[in-house]
Amino acid sequence: MNPEGIVPLWKKRGKTSFDCVRDMQRLYGTKKVGHTGTLDPDVEGVLPICIGRATKLVEYMTAESKEYEGEATIGFSTTTEDSSGEKVEQKDVSETLIETDVDEVLERLNGRIEQTPPMYSAVKVKGKRLYEYARQGIEVERPFREVTIYKLERTSPVVQRDGLVTFRFRVKCSKGTYVRTLAVTMGELLGYPAHMSDLVRTASGAFTSDQCLTEEQLAELKEQNRLEESLYPFEHALKDWPKLTVDKEIEAKVMNGAVIPLPKTMDESRFTLYNQQGECLAIYKKHPNKEGMMKPEKMLKIL
């Protein structure tokens, strides 16, 4: 039987997200594998990987909020906005920055903000990724994007020495947020160049760091013929979604992709439909043209 489900992988530093996909393809013996939100090579942390039928959820899981723990260094900026890049601008922090100064800046960054993607990022401009331009030394105009910072707080003392200021922070943010750029903005608001000197993703959607397995742990499970134990059912990724449970008659209609009546109690525009055995059948949404009806957006259960 083909493997299917979601493995909460702990991605280690030094690997790209696509490296991890290739590794999981080899490990699980299937090409039907997809990751749920790019992590830079220098960042470690939670990277849920969808296997088999669970790949139908990649677009939804990628859109979920993410949580990170990072470190900002104030005093110099880099080409990549993190510690892997070359130093661009330096300005020693000569004044004393106290914790309330930092906390006020972090408070200002909560909510909806605009970001310009770093030159060293995978955003495409005119058919090429920004990092391809950056490697050629070509500067191009970058489109800004709106992101949401749900929570941003300092998690360490503010340390000041040798002209630099460092502090750690925790952030919960929407998809598409560049935490590197967030660290740079912290510095700008404090009046100094800055970069992100460390970053770990601690949660992605419904998956947290304490659920994750490393590649070494997965390889060990495979040797013991227990690899299926690593897979969460795809219902886990949908556990916080609005949910409707249907009877057998409606289940048959859902499995045929039918347009069906929308319960008056359901206000959300998108939701999951389950059968009485607890299996998620499909993702449905309000019908755009037929009042009081709903239509399938994504079929999940196979007949």
From TrEMBL:
Q: Where is the Pseudouridine synthase II N-terminal domain?
A: 26-179
Q: Name one GO biological process term.
A: mRNA pseudouridine synthesis
Keywords for this entry?
Isomerase, tRNA processing
**Which stretches are annotated as coiled coil?**
none
Enzyme Commission code(s) on record: 5.4.99.25
> Do the record's keywords include Ligase?
no
Locate the tRNA pseudouridylate synthase B C-terminal domain: which residues?
180-238
Q: Which HAMAP family did the record assign? A: TruB_bact
Q: Per its record, how is this protein called by name?
A: tRNA pseudouridine synthase B
- Per the UniProt record, the source organism is Alteribacter keqinensis
Gene that encodes it = truB
